[in-house]
Amino acid sequence: MHPLSEYDSTIKEIASYTAKDHDFSHTALKSVKLALLDAMGCALLANQFKACSKLLGPIVKGTIVPKGSRVIGTKYVLDPVNAAFQNGLLIRWLDYNDTFLAKEWGHPSDNLGALLSLSDFISRSPKRKAAPTVLDLLKAMVKAYEIQGVLALETSYNRVGFDHIALVKVASSALSAFLFGLDESQIAATVSQAFIDVGSLRTYRHAPNTGSRKSWAAGDATSKGVFLAYLVSKGEMGYPKALSSHKFGLSDVLFNGKPITLGRPLGSYIAENILFKVSFPAEFHAQTAVECAIKLHPKIKNRFHDIEKIEIQTQESANRIINKPGPFHNPADRDHSLQYMVAVGLAKGSLLADDYEDEAERNEPLFLELIKKMKVYENKKFSEEYLDPELRSIANSIKITFKSETNPIEEHLDFPLGHKSRREESVPFILNKFKKNTASFYSKNKTGIILDLFEEEEELFRMPVSKFMEYFIH
Prior knowledge:
Distance between the termini: 43 Å
Protein name: 2-methylcitrate dehydratase
Keywords: Lyase
Strand content: 5-15%
InterPro entries: 2Me_IsoCit_deHydtase_PrpD, MmgE/PrpD_sf, MmgE/PrpD_sf_1, MmgE/PrpD_sf_2, MmgE_PrpD, MmgE_PrpD_C, MmgE_PrpD_N
GO molecular function, one term: 2-methylcitrate dehydratase activity
CATH architecture of the largest domain: Orthogonal Bundle
CATH topology of the largest domain: 2-methylcitrate dehydratase PrpD
Structural class: alpha+beta
Strand order of the largest sheet: 6-5-7-8
Radius of gyration: 22 Å
Family: Belongs to the PrpD family.
């Protein structure tokens, strides 16, 4: 095993941060507790979609792993690598979990696939002296969020055609190594393996190839983090210059020699600034656009025939990745179309996961009629404020012009519900979202028990993760 001193500085910083205990702020822990609650609700809702649930279960039918990891909302007990994949895909499936946006973007609760599954497995191991508690899980979440998000501040994988799940793999590998009880140099070895793995091409997120892989790609990444940590726990070596090696290091291969750096010192910045998807499952660059559309709905619901054009101003990132007027081949195509999401909001005054299904488009011709009237533009000010670390806005505006002589109407929002600047306003809505998602899956009585679980914070924090998971198995 290579000594820690030989590793690239970014890998060393990640390993050092991961290995240490930190006194995280109450704000950070409160934020990830809310994110855990939200992610579990997203997973329960996703369980009810056949395209998702068909991917669950053991590869060999009937297999149950003694003292293994549980899969949310099911009876399955699997090895922690496979469980991480399945818990990860459940949390991510509906594009409804939390988000962080920078030069790269992503969904930090994607890492819960690894953190939950491995903590559950370790908690149930008779060889483990101290079972990981929910508080341990929350601290691991803060670290995973920080690693993924801070790496996203200065380096854009999407611009070179690679998917943001590369950063999920790095964060999940670091925290999986930590949960396995590995030392700092072993954590570095695991992280180097993850960087060498890079990630997937973004092919499956963009027309004409948009497909359901984008809903399980994070599960794939987080489970690979567990697997890499497992290999290192068995003595597998690391690669100290995974980032900086001439010609074959990640820096040269993808970024023309630009170093892979951390955008700020590692602490709890990401957890404190995380974005929650509160009201509807929509790609986050479109959240304010959908809010605007829903606000406009009452003003236009009797005037659809009179609309001449719909102008949407957005940020550069949204213009590049979700400016997609169709045609739409599947739900994954629709939930990454700015136009489709806005059209549903304008037509219905709401946006639900079911609205992305093929039947929804077939049954409501108004969606496509509205899309034909749309033009999407980048607003430079929106783009600048999107990258401003003091603002982190996700601005959109919608202007509707009518055929008649009436004045156009317009809505503009800089910060969506779920943004740090609207966090207190958001909390009741996030709790209601969780209650609604849980009640759609469990009985009223069990839903009440689970809600009470999150209210009793001290008891929750002391609870072993294995016991916590028992509340969410079928």
